[in-house]
Each structure stands twice: as structure tokens, then as C-alpha cells.
């Protein structure tokens, strides 16, 4: 990237062809409070974020047990999401429903969700270790009614 003019390159008055450079923020040393252990963390981050965003970064970087558990949980949620992406159709809302179910179950908002699609029933819940569990059963329907 050749700079034709070294001064005023980041000046707001000089933004006709430097629009993209101005939108990208600089990074410098910032601090935030880990939401799990309330300790202050120092890190390099983009300038101009909200306190809440810096606290999120601090929580991401912290090595306390709560932050580690949260990262592990995030990873497992991501893995479950990737699995679901492979298995459910994105076009008719199935995937969104499954992801929403996984999210709500993982967060403890609901205990379990059952989704019936065709002859498959997918039950989303968590086991005693807090692992996300998706049990799929296939049933050839042979119910008789008189
Ligand atoms: Zn922490």
C-alpha cells in the first residue's frame, strides 16, 4: 500500500479515497473486567469499543475457572452447531429450530426439546455432565386407529 501523502492520511477531512482505512479502527492497550471473576485484564484491542465489549474480551482472555468453563461450553455449542448444520436443512427453517433448541437447552432455559420431522424424532437435552445430547429415533409408524 503506497501512501502518497504521509500527513493527514488518517484525517477525517481527507477521506475521499481513504474511507476504508478510517472505518478500520486502530488497536491499542485496553482493559476490561472479567465477568466471571471480576478481575481486570489488560489486552490489545480495537479502540472505541463499549465498556461491555471490553469486558467481553477480558472474559474471553481470562484464565479463571469460570472463563475456562464458558469457553469450553462455547466450543461444545459450536461443535453441536456444526453437526446440526450438516444434518438439517437450512431452507425450511429446520436448522434454525434445532440451533435454537440447542441454545435454549444449553443455557438451561428449557430442560429438553423434541422435534419431529417426518419419521425422525430428535430430542435435545443435556446429560448429567452438562454435555449437549441429541438423540434421534426413527420410527416406522404403524399406528392403527379404529
Ligand atoms: Zn476471570
**Poorly predicted parts:** 1-15
Largest sheet: 3 strands, antiparallel
Mean pLDDT comes to 84
Multimeric state? single chain
Ligands, deduplicated: zinc ion
DSSP E strands, number:
5
Radius of gyration: 24 Å
Tell me the overall shape: elongated
Tell me the series of helices and strands, N- to C-terminal: HEEHHHEEE
What structural category characterises the helix and strand content? alpha+beta
Strand content: 15-25%
Number of alpha- plus pi-helical segments:
4
Structure characterization notes:
It is a single chain. This protein is an alpha+beta fold and 146 residues long. The chain has 2 domains: 18-63, no CATH class; 69-138, no CATH class. 36% of the residues lie in helices and 23% in strands. It contains 4 helices and 5 strands. The protein has helices spanning 19-23, 51-61, 65-87, 94-106; strands spanning 27-33, 40-46, 112-117, 120-126, 132-138. The strands form 2 sheets. It has a 3-stranded antiparallel sheet, with helices on one face. A two-stranded antiparallel ribbon has the order 1-2. Helix 3 packs antiparallel against helix 4 (94-106). The longest helix is centred in the middle third of the chain and has 23 residues, at 65-87. It is elongated and about 75 Å long. The N and C termini lie far apart (78 Å). Mean pLDDT is 84; it is low at 1-15. The structure holds zinc ion. Zinc ion (ZN) is lined by residues 34, 36-37, 39, 62, 64, 66-67.
Amino acid at each position: 500500500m503506497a501512501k502518497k501523502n504521509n500527513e493527514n492520511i488518517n484525517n477525517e477531512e481527507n477521506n475521499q479515497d481513504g474511507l476504508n482505512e478510517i472505518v478500520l479502527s486502530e488497536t491499542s492497550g485496553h482493559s476490561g473486567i472479567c465477568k466471571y471473576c471480576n478481575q481486570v485484564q489488560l489486552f490489545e484491542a480495537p479502540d472505541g469499543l463499549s465498556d461491555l465489549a471490553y469486558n467481553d474480551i477480558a472474559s474471553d482472555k481470562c484464565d479463571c475457572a469460570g472463563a475456562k468453563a464458558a469457553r469450553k461450553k462455547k466450543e461444545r455449542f459450536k461443535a453441536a452447531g456444526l453437526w446440526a448444520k450438516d444434518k438439517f436443512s437450512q431452507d425450511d427453517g429446520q436448522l434454525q429450530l434445532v440451533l435454537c433448541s440447542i441454545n435454549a437447552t444449553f443455557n438451561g432455559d428449557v430442560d429438553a426439546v423434541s422435534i419431529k420431522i417426518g419419521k425422525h424424532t430428535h430430542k435435545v437435552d443435556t446429560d448429567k455432565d452438562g454435555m449437549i445430547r441429541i438423540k434421534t429415533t426413527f420410527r416406522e409408524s404403524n399406528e392403527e386407529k379404529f
